[in-house]
Amino acid sequence: MLIRVMYSDGRFDMIKPNMLDNLLDKQRVTSFKRSSGWAVVGRDPIRSSGRSNYHGTERRLV
Fold it and tell me: Among 14, 23, 48, 55, which is disulfide-ready with 29 (CB 3.0 to 4.6 Å)?
């Protein structure tokens, strides 16, 4: 399964789920597609290895 993402420069891509945390930590992704719609960084709750305060439902396959 691949995740659709939008990079900071406006480009779109499809990435493997294990790449998402790294791109979020480096602030290279501004939004990514969830089953419920687009998650926008800075607006929607997101989880990453450096953001242990997220307590939502797991949405990514690992």
Answer: 23
- Please state whether the predicted TM-score (pTM) of the whole model is above 0.70: yes
Q: What is the pLDDT of residues 7-54, one digit of tens each?
A: 999 999 999 998 999 999 999 999 999 999 999 999 998 865 554 555
The residues, any chain, with a CB within 8 Å of residue 4's CB and separated by 6 or more, are 12, 13, 14, 32, 33
Q: Where are the domains of the chain?
A: 3-40
- Signed CA dihedral, 41, 43, 6, 19: sign only: positive
Bridge partners of 6, per DSSP, are 12, 31
Contact 2, 16 (CB under 8 A): yes
Torsion 31-50-25-2 (CA) sign: negative
